Amino acid sequence: MNEPAPQADLFAAADATEAAERVRLQALREQLAYHAWRYYVLDDPEIPDAEYDRLMQELQALEARHPEWVTPDSPTQRVGGQALSSFASVTHRVPMLSIRTETDTRPEAALAFDARIRRELELADDAPPVDYVAEPKFDGLAITLHYAHGVLQRAATRGDGATGEDVTHTVRTIGQVPLRLRGAGAAIPHVEVRGEVYMRRDDFEALNERQRQRIAAGEKNEKTFVNPRNAAAGAVRQLDPAVAAARPLSFFAYGLGEITPPEEGGPAFERHWQVLQALREWGFPVSELAERCAGGAALADYHRRIGQRRDALPFDIDGVVYKVDRLDWQRRLGFVTREPRWALAHKYPAQEQLTRVRAIDVQVGRTGKLTPVARLEPVFVGGVTVTHATLHNEDEVLRKDVRVGDTVIVRRAGDVIPEVVAVAPPLPQPRGEPFRMPAHCPVCGSAVVREPGEVDHRCSGGLFCPAQRKQAILHFAQRRAMDIEGLGDKLVDQLVDGGLVRTVADLYRLGLRQLAELPRMADKSAGNVLAAIERSKATTLARFLYALGIRHVGESTARDLARHFGRLEAIMDADVEALQQVPDVGPVVARSIRAFFDEPHNREVVEQLRACGVHWPEHDGAREDSQPQPLAGKTLVLTGTLPTLTREEAKALIEAAGGKVAGSVSRKTDYVVAGEAAGSKLDKARELGVPVLDETGLRALLAGGAVSP
Ligand SMILES: NC(=O)c1ccc[n+]([C@@H]2O[C@H](COP(=O)([O-])OP(=O)(O)OC[C@H]3O[C@@H](n4cnc5c(N)ncnc54)[C@H](O)[C@@H]3O)[C@@H](O)[C@H]2O)c1
Ligand SMILES: [Zn+2]
């Protein structure tokens, strides 16, 4: 650039591009530094990870074109954030690094990693496949734990990779982090165990729900959390251990830092896989999803399989990690500035993305609850295209201050409905109007009410409101209620809008002719729907009660009511006190049941249904003992993911066998059924001496057999 160039205009053009690139480089570095600070130091990011990663990739590409511009303080050269001075600092004798990321989310991208490893190890083409260990990449906060002769001494965050923060006081409150190592671990003079502190998705949802209630109750300084990672990181990096203890944190161990060498009494490991087994023996939770894979095709297959299970896992993962299994090969491959050469993080589609709010609709639910829903510019999140995301309630919209035209962060993780978590800067100028809940139901025009102390607005129209009517009919027909196959959204819309069905009893008065005349309905499918309606007439009292859609009466309450009272009249006539004799029925539920049957039109619908032939076996308040009930009177708690049963299936089996499923472990719990990634409930069970079963044990119990936990 200094010498005058012979081909002046060509060089001038190059100079102009270079100058522009320099400006862009500077801007990227500043933005990345700002967002890293928000993310790592404040635990309060403003943009989704996917957005941050895009900026980072742009910077990496720029620096690759101009290696001479790379400086040691570039965000591409650094790990994580800075340690906060409010914590004592801890030096990592073995640095805590980042992991090289593969953002191509196709499984085949694993092949390139394997090829690179083979090249760097200088393996011959016909050499056998390289052994790897593949693990989920947990989306939480990296922690290192120092143990001396088996006793936890210190816990620290990653910080900038060389120096972290001392968070021993909060990490001690995590039940899954052993304070003392078991087995051979107890004898090691010094060992540093590395792993991830994270928050399970259900724990996160429950925490945010509690936060929403707190905010509704007027508690200041409370907020909801953007995602499980930030909730977990924020909890660990608290000065007050009580705050961390109140947040449900979990832990997975996945590696070692510094460790006493074998010649001084430490263990000798040759493979990463052995390390994982040892960690498990020492008492750490290690993911059951970790697997040994030989060669690149096996890695790709692992990526595909875990990807298929991602939504069903109880915790967030943002990818999988491949690690060369042989530790001597890991040493040979070594490190580049901020990442080991022997590992790769292979990503999945991001669970958070930016998009724009086109409108804020208000939906009316089955019980009349009004929910603001953001209509979005379609965006690919967590593997699907999302066009709508919930905003929960009016308070939440106002607190997040989401307005039409804003750019927002949308999160979709697992089977949880997509959610708008925050508005992302910059704000459009001028901005739209602040959101207001309508005064009248958007569906039926009835007045909208908000009862004191409630967060939700409701339509006061009741069954007069078609939204509630449609939802009530869909609820009535669903599998776990009256189980009318083929009666879905579209058909219910047609039936209600066409005036054929006003109440659920009208379903049983439908004729073949009426149905077959509906658009898109052939004779055959009309016949099928009628047959399904006919079949549904033979039901159980529990299903019928649940199908009525009484507010606060879910499946298990319906079952308890049926078991306790035996016949419908007894329930319809029971007063609030009598209703509260049923286990788990409190004043709110009792009042809601009473109010339902006090409505003359509800009683009328029930009478009409019976007149149409809906029937079930009744008894005099004893137990329905038609089938053997090996779990009668037993309370079980489910935790973690079982190998073949979903949580819902396990619950249904237990309840069919007469047992109850509770949400938390207490002295009254008879068994805890634990699967993969079992959380704090498992620790509680061990603490209280409650027998713990796996799925096989559960099946033995259900079959009426004895189990030895
Ligand atoms: N939204 C934002 O503003 C913002 C800002 C900064 C960083 N970020 C995000 O943070 C991430 C930055 O990555 P990073 O450099 O911290 O590294 P990383 O999180 O991508 O990878 C390294 C980390 O992976 C974790 N990990 C999980 N499972 C593991 C396993 N089985 N084995 C080993 N390690 C495992 C460890 O905590 C380790 O520190 C990116 O996803 C980026 O988008 C976001
Ligand atoms: Zn209405």
Automatic annotation (TrEMBL):
NAD(+) binds at D49, A50, E51, Y52, D53, S98, I99, E135, R158, E196, K323, K347. The keyword Metal-binding applies. The active site is at K137. It catalyses: NAD(+) + (deoxyribonucleotide)n-3'-hydroxyl + 5'-phospho-(deoxyribonucleotide)m = (deoxyribonucleotide)n+m + AMP + beta-nicotinamide D-nucleotide. Its EC number is 6.5.1.2. GO terms for molecular function: DNA binding; DNA ligase (NAD+) activity; metal ion binding. Signal peptide: none annotated. One of its GO terms (biological process) is DNA replication. Residues 626-709 form the BRCT domain. It is an enzyme of class 6 (ligase). Belongs to the NAD-dependent DNA ligase family. LigA subfamily. DNA ligase that catalyzes the formation of phosphodiester linkages between 5'-phosphoryl and 3'-hydroxyl groups in double-stranded DNA using NAD as a coenzyme and as the energy source for the reaction. It is essential for DNA replication and repair of damaged DNA. This is DNA ligase.
